[in-house]
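Onboarding guide, step 5: your first structure request.
Type a short instruction followed by the sequence, for example:

Predict the 3D structure of this protein.
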Amino acid sequence: MNDRLFLFFNDCLELKKISLISKKYKLKEHAIRRRLSGLESEVGEKLYTIREQEINLTESGKKILKLLKNSEDFKNALILKKALERKKTVNVLICSELEDYALPTFLSFLENGGAIGKFSYYVSDALGVSLFSDVMPDFCLFSDSDLFKHVFQNHKKIIQEKVSFYALSAYVKKNGNPSSLSDLKNHTVIFTSQQKNNMNESCKNYLEAFGKIIEVTDALSVKSLVEKGIAIGALSETLSIQAKGPLIQVLKDLTFTLDFYFGCHPNWIEEKQFNSLFSNMRDALKSRRVR
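The system replies with structure tokens like these:
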């Protein structure tokens, strides 16, 4: 099912009144009805009625809504949508090593950004204490491809460092939204033995600037640390090394605990799953209608 249409339908049910839906989405009544009819056509069932300018579910609609709301795809899309609705600016940090299959999706995502809100772009050409000097990113991706030159006019060659930063909701609730590295000096970075052996000096200096470091042996250890609110930073490949459980589920459990930042590394997930996550992000942002 089209996640974007279903999220719109869910909003309609929560708002109920056509006037409130029209105000939120800047749509006239006929456009609202057309979207909802499109959803009914896709499902093949009568889902709702409109009486006295108020939307109500049919019995079939109640059954289908219950089934869909229990699906993992919808839960993930809804969590992401609500998180992004709290923001008026989306900040993007580009790092190295994004796989080729992800580039067209991401470039399209950026190029369509003007219609859905304000974007700020950051390209990291060095890893050091000034990397997040101004603002925390919402999206962190990895590439050194020339395809980015038409998006980033001042594009520079990106070095092959492998650090991805996470600010999790547990940290945010305790310390507030971090605005610079100086706010994060006491956080924890997690990594594997293999990463430690391959770490160069600049990377080691970068990690030491943060504070405490914990070494882990598998993805489930990472998940445990995150859930306890202990670890809020990780090397990008940590989850893909020596995983002892279904890797995509570990990824989902981690990424959807994030409050204002979503990180993605190509080694974590397969192409189909990567594109699905980006589709949810894109649709959630488009429905936000930030002025």
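Each response can be followed by summary notes, for example: The chain has a mean pLDDT of 51.
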